[in-house]
Batch of 3 targets.
Target 1
Amino acid sequence: MAAASSVLRCCLLVAALMTLSAMGAEAITRQYLFDVQTTSVTRLCSTKSIVTVNGQYPGPTLFAREGDHVEVTVVNHSPYNMSIHWHGIRQLLSGWADGPSYITQCPIQPGGSYVYRFAITGQRGTLWWHAHISWLRATVHGPMVILPPAGVGYPFPAPHEEVPIMFGEWWNNDTEAVISQALQTGGGPNISDAYTLNGLPGPLYNCSAQDTFKLKVKPGKTYMLRLINAALNDELFFSIANHTLTVVDVDALYVKPFTVDTLIIAPGQTSNVLLTAKPTYPGASYYMLARPYTTTQGTFDNTTVAGVLEYDDPCPTTAAGKIVPIFSPTLPQINDTNAVSNFTAKLRSLASAGYPAAVPQQVDHRFFFTVGLGTHPCAVNGTCQGPNGSRFAASINNVSFVLPATALLQSHFAGKSKGVYASNFPYYPLNPFNYTGTPPNNTNVMNGTKVLVLPYGANVELVMQDTSILGAESHPLHLHGFNFFVVGQGFGNFDPINDPAKFNLYDPVERNTVGVPAGGWVHMSWGLKMAWLVLDGSRPDQKLPPPPLDLPKC
């Protein structure tokens, strides 16, 4: 059943691509219905009820072309509040559709609905959608396939087929109970029981040989794998035995192609890679493996998910019942930071005439953000499971964000921000220290609902600095509604005198999600239009329209 299901998904993708190809060059409005519901699913010999879209896990693929308008009607038949984020979509004057609960909208309550409307501008490749409230994204997620405009090809040879592959995590327990327990105790959440490929854990897990993703290929053909890391917590190494992968796109943006045996993909990131099958039938199958990269001192899911790459046999009648050998790739060590930095150093924007890298050369606002784990004191007479009986607290510039009771964008637009948020988020750490050296004695962080207010059209420079307060580890950062250029990164503390000389301002990779290196820093630059809390521009076409009439109420 697993193999049949996988082949069906590939066929559906090919059929959808053929349908889009026949629709002409004009941009159209593509409409989808997402029915959020509970569905009974069995994995690892354990059955539980999970939240899904349209009863599918992973959810349905959203197809569109660059330049299209998209309307997705989300009807919430689940028992939970819900919102959907279109991860990586440039929300240009469509911030009401971005989806994070209590940021751009109040959640869709059980029994309610909301229509997300947005345009796809200057993007083509692979993105994804997911729930953006609590931990519901563990099962509420799916691919977004964005094709070039009709008549416009890829800047590389067209593949024979295109196949979305979503990495995920599976918990036997209810994920809402997992995060609820972590928030109550202040400890780290219980680790997942398995990783998944397109929702399937594969043969390396107990009771899961029948739940294996299988990719059928023809000798000599080239396939484009649309990779998406939908895992909640972990960066993942990925490799296919005895095959190389050519990276041609990340986060729906073309890059200068390069070939690797193993790639790294952080939570929230996407990548299109070309896989060329062997020229003749090899008489073997090959594992596709993914496992985590981490430098954390805490617990993590140290397991491996496997799918199988199978070749069409030119003589299937003579091969009936024949067992072929299966080969396995060698993945880097779990903490192989060199493998990660070597891979990320290869990423370069295509920077061609058709796809230029518009790197801002002048900067209007500069920020330096420290990111890492600190602590909150345990409540009086409480029992907490963080360091020394405290509670873990993630923070940026020592501020741990507190969700408001109403959406930030709604309160800003209505001119009722007082008591909802403060616009004094610190540009720099208020108390500088040796960020990757000896940590300070006081590890407590403050709480706050603080935002940065920026003018429309500002060019922004941001350094994200990891800290070793409770151990250095990599942190993924996703910028909603816009992209940025990764012009530099390194290890240790950022040096504002010497490091800028190493910046790549010609063809840096453009992304919407980046991993801040463990014990290091990443330098980003972008021209900001509609991200963070951005004030309207002076022209009518630079002003956010009023909220939709069906925008959910808190």
Target 2
Amino acid sequence: MGTAAALLLVSLLFWTALVVRASHVIYPELQSLEAVQVAMELRTGYHFQPPKHWINDPNGPMYYKGLYHLFYQYNPKGSVWGNIIWAHSVSTDLIDWVSVEPGIYPSKPFDINGCWSGSATVLPSGVPVIMYTGIDPAERQVQNVAYPANLSDPFLREWVKPNYNPIISPDRSINASAFRDPTTAWFGPDGHWRLIVGSKEDMRGIAVLYRSRDFKKWVRAHHSLHAGDHTGMWECPDFYPVAVAGGSRHHRSGVDTLELRDAAVAKEVKYVLKVSLDLMRYEYYTVGWYDHAKDRYTPDPSFQDNDYGLRYDYGDFYASKSFFDPAKKRRVLWGWANESDTVPDDRQKGWAGIQAIPRKIFLSRSGRQLIQWPVEEVKSLRGIHVNVSNKAVKSGEYFKVTGIKSVQSDVEAAFAIKDLDKAEKFDPAWRNDAQGLCDRFNSHVKGGVGPFGLWLLASGDLKERTAVFFRVFKTNHTNYVVLMCNDPTRSSYEAKDYRPTFAGFVNMDITKTKKIALRTLIDHSVVESFGAGGRTCILTRVYPRKAIGDNAHLFVFNNGQSEIKVTNLHAWEMKTPTMNQPE
């Protein structure tokens, strides 16, 4: 029996032994105990989270001396935001994690009121450096640097903050309360370092650009790297190179910013600028060109450079941070998923927030978008496996996938559409409102082609269920639009939970094969889905009350007129890794 189960049994025996009462009496202590049991069942099994308390932004991810490092915003005193420090964990494989001493915490005048988000840069000498936002005694947001106390320690347990901090302070033209989250620095062909800090002027988001020769003295450039009108504050900016198809390296490979010292490499990459929108609480990105001589970033014309732009994830995914992994020559993306239950729920659970599964991220062959996919190491957790092949699902039908415990699982499915002609007509006015479209045409609303997909974390009677599905619309006789949705509106009996639908359009030509693929990582209270090979990604938090543990089930459904066929469905139970045990 596990520790949690033993504690639960002891508690039950204790309360049962207190006294025999009339059956109609409501026992608050037993209701509380039931809530604790549900909270235990909702805790994720293989997503990153500490044993207890609040977490938010991933900070300073890097690879050093054979270990992956992840710092993250953490409240060591409770399950709500506050008292923020940089907690620190290490891993050999991005799956099993060990917690070590906090990396950064308030200790000097330049960060005495808080240590907020930042990034890590590995210098050409191999020395890792952390850049982070500190809150000084005047409540100004200033940028600071920290170095390892012992470079021979692969765990990087201790960090030193030089007394010459802050290295970047807001000048009079900058809003000192909106000036944060320095990026990983990059080294230009001219031998100067550069980084950006997120800021705003009124409703204009700004990536403020700084340069340095020695990583100590930083000078603000005369112009920003880039800016966006009507977007509000740009938090947690990320700026990095990506390989393009047809270059000297495979387009799926990552590019280290240190390689940009080579002018030849600098000419055959594009750049990604991602910003987190403080007002909207979601992110968008563009891909474009960076002029090293002029220090100007220009998005490609095909990318919307505003809050209607492409997103890494159309769900509960924020404050993301990427890093180059030199061990596997890839770029890895981390993102924070907040809770969507209530603050009292979080206090009762004793924890709040997780990190999404780390994703490999790269530019598509067409150059029109980024592709994301769970890092390959996740497959090491796969256990018991079931497979369904060539199973037709007619209009209004569904079937249960049996043989595994799906509450903690990895599901890959491929669907073939029999009759695209049944697709409903697409209104061009819907183009910038996928979420509103999914809310209007949710999984319960019958359609032409779709909704079809998965019901997961479903109770046996289907009164609780979360839907992940596709719906196809036609713009004319030859062109189609594919919508992907996560619909948690029936995920829980608990009425207080925030249960919005999340959705994004899938950039694909469905007419070529009439097939579409879906991978979904299910982990108790998180549903993380990747459509069409990672073209569209959606993460949702859900809090079922009945569909927990062994009572959580997996179904395939079709609520459209066109028949669909499950050409292949593979589902695996997922084992639980070591998750932030003390060193």
Target 3
Amino acid sequence: MASVMYALLLCLSAGALSVVQGEDPYLFFTWNVTYGTISPLGVPQQAILINGQFPGPNINSTSNNNIVLNVFNNLDEPFLLTWNGVQQRKNSWQDGTLGTMCPIAPGTNFTYRFQVKDQIGSYMYYPVTAMHRAAGGFGGLRINSRLLIPVPYADPEDEYTVMIGDWYTKSHTALKKILDSGRSMGRPAGVLINGKNAKGDGKDEPLFTMKPGKTYKYRVCNVGLKNSLNFRIQGHPLKLVEMEGSHTVQNTYESLDVHVGQCFSLLVTADKEPKDYYMVASTRFTKTVLTGKGIIRYENGNGPASPELPEAPVGWAWSLNQFRSFRWNLTASAARPNPQGSYHYGKINITRTIKIVNSASRVDGKLRYAVNGVSHVESETPLKLAEYFGVADKVFKYDTIEDEPPATVEDKITLAPNVVNQTFRDFVEIIFENHEKSIQSWHLDGYSFFAVAIEPGRWTPEKRKNYNLLDGVSRHTIQVFPKSWAAVMLTFDNAGMWNVRSEQPERRYLGQQFYVSVLSPARSLRDEYNLPETAQLCGIVKDSPKPPPYSS
């Protein structure tokens, strides 16, 4: 029996080679990143393709799988992918941010090696270099539950990944030049669903097909650049079952606001007249509403989709109320057998409160975005490498920002690498306060946090009485409405260097991000993996001898 269990099993599926041994299974991928020409809005433009695909291939994995992904950069610029929401436990070396890794140089390749440890759910990957995300290079990443772990709904007939996002017809290089010149990149030209927008001329091919009477799971992610999108399907209610790695209480919605960087899993039952229906994604909180459409076709159905699209909600009070309806499913098991609700986050004492205020201002006449008055600047040496090689003092200063924003946060901006020092395993409250007139979307790498409140106005300690301390959803991205605040709580128990960023690439590129350095005092393999042998070195550590590895 043992010899059977430890035998090498090879299976080929979805372009990935799966190797199953005594340890958790391995999935192997080879990706060729190239330029190509696409015309999703009728205008030919340069796109970034992965294995010739736009959007890129789906990664279909299961909890605890090891992913080995060899990326060949055939572009003319450095390139780097991040795995949005994958926690990279003990392994910020593979996080794919410019603060943790050297980008992949043109004409070279790099192999990512990471484990989707103790996670389930719907995620995505995208480029973090330059403005590459505006040209593609993104796709879906799903982590299925292990067969032994019960899922709180019946297996769907099939699962579909839906990448929605606003889109520019300007090239990524043109957009970068605009930002580098100190201007905003303006409004997008349209909205795409899986890289397309149905014309409605009767010639549109369906994005998805459904068998009458069957239920399907749609994994919907907003991979756009600027706008929150409202997602809906003609005549079909949406049952929310999972959000960014957490099973939710299964409420049903006519439509859902999906903010930039967020992912939802929805169950949709094909119980209507068998014909075509439109899947719709439209911009929210914009004067001019842009709409993207895609066809869902019933098998053996007869009849075109109705040109009358379901209406979207108006205003952000509706969106705030929808956020408040999201609840953690306390009885469901996620990646482990124990119920989600067995972790009582509301009973843990807060050891630190960090209040984050985003702002927009000008430095030497050029637009910059900042966090507590500091606009992050990328360093030639990744922050994590500088720290690991003992040369952090030559690259950045810790705690450039304080836990309380300065009174002049909206006026004065300092340009510098922005790194916050955080004690390992402390339980921390982070307040995101938005004084601007536009909605924000914040993401934290390496963790999930509990989204305990979003409210209008300014935050004060008295607002804690309004927190959801029982069943706030554990997730990695949270929106902050105009002139509002959001509160999240988490334990910083994952050693590494972790990016906190605006999910809107313009704001991230122009400085609205920072890093949290979480160092384990034990310097032990129990807390953090060693620098990988294959790690690329750059900047001032390029030719440095590697420090002694952690031994236990």
